[in-house]
Design goal:
This protein is α/β, with parallel strands linked by helices. The chain has eleven helices and 14 strands. It has two domains: 136 residues, Rossmann fold, CATH 3.40.50; 174 residues, Dihydrodipicolinate Reductase, domain 2, CATH 3.30.360.10. 32% of the residues lie in helices and 23% in strands. The strands form two sheets. An eight-stranded mixed sheet has the order 8-9-10-7-11-12-13-14, covered by helices on one side. The chain is globular and about 70 Å long.
């Protein structure tokens, strides 16, 4: 493809190695040029032609780069995205987009004035499980939805070595980490709520940040959406439960993309993103005889490459991006403490 977008990554930890570099390498519209690694050369081991910079300032000074990925610790997103925009670069920012709504508004305003794009990396909209339940919700088969539950849980009883996630600094805690995904998915399904309420918990020994968080999102049509993130769940519960006038839908978190990528699978491999049989969600409805019927909902293939298609089209074709500015502002209004 002609006129490829030349890309630089601000970091090459798990995010850069797993969720970004393989897709930029595989996508015909991008060329991965450079990365920042302050002391190591891991990216060069995977991509021999990549340039390794030791400082973010060096990356931003590379005039060839058109897109910068801000995949650094949460509290740095605003500072580094602003510096990238001021350097004349389009920006793709890992979740959370920023720590506060005011920071996001400033970034959107700056990008507009400079004629650049600042885009949110909300990859979980392309998880197989979410795509499957979204298809049923949008179909109307549930009728009016009265109550919805979205969960993203893990079990990690110890304190992580990633200090930026565990120290009481802006953007730390499980709600900014996993809640950012669930709030975004709720907004994608139902829009921005009219009001919300939150609770937090700290339960691990010596934890300085929340490891349990809940949000109740209330909508003017009476819908209540309950978002839960919990670091201490041994047996995973259904990630999606929707109660409608005409039926009930349940689905576990079954997307395979992250474990596949961690195992070394490429986004272009034949089985990439395919769920295993038996992982289907369940739709419960009443038949004409008044009996409950159970139906397996069709599986969808997860595909994070679709996000990179969106990034390319937003930059090259000025297409509307799938995550709207109001989506991010609404999300941050809920995330912000």
């Amino acid at each position: 493809m002609e006129n490829k977008i030349k890309v630089g990554l601000m970091a090459y930890g798990m995010s850069g190695k797993i969720f970004h570099a393989p897709f930029f390498e595989a996508h015909k519209g991008f060329e991965l040029i450079a990365v920042v690694e302050r002391s190591k050369n891991k990216a060069a081991e995977d991509y021999p032609n990549i340039i390794t910079y030791r400082a973010i300032e060096e990356l931003l000074a590379d005039e060839r780069l058109e897109l910068i990925v801000v995949n650094t610790p949460n509290y740095t997103h605003f500072e580094y995205a602003k510096a990238s925009l001021n350097a004349g670069k389009n920006v793709l920012i890992e979740k959370p987009f920023s720590v506060t709504k005011a920071e996001a508004e400033e970034l959107f305003s700056l990008a507009f004035r400079k004629g650049l794009k600042v885009l949110a990396y909300q990859n979980r909209r392309f998880d197989s499980d979410f795509l499957a339940v979204q298809k049923v919700v949008k179909s109307g088969r549930l009728g009016k939805i009265t109550e919805a539950h979205l969960r993203f849980d893990r079990y990690r009883n110890e304190i992580s070595e990633k200090t930026f996630k565990e120290e009481p600094i802006p953007g730390a805690g499980i709600f900014y980490d996993l809640g950012a995904h669930m709030i975004d998915q709720a907004i994608a399904l139902f829009g921005i709520p009219s009001e919300f309420h939150k609770t937090y918990g700290k339960h691990r020994a010596s934890t300085a940040v929340d490891d349990v968080a809940h949000a109740l999102l209330k909508y003017n049509n009476g819908l209540n959406v309950f978002v839960t993130t919990n670091m201490l769940v041994v047996k995973q519960q259904p990630a999606y439960v929707f109660y409608g006038i005409n039926g009930t839908l349940t689905k576990h978190r079954t997307d395979v993309q992250e474990p596949q990528l961690l195992a070394g699978m490429k986004p272009t491999d034949q089985d990439y993103g395919k769920e295993s049989p038996g992982d289907e969600g369940k739709l419960y409805t009443f038949n004409d005889s008044g009996e409950v019927t159970e139906e397996q909902i069709a599986m969808e293939n997860g595909n994070y490459m679709l996000l990179f298609d969106e990034v390319y089209n937003a930059i090259r074709n000025n297409s509307e991006y799938f995550v709207k500015q109001n989506d991010i502002l609404g999300q941050l209004s809920i995330l912000e403490k």
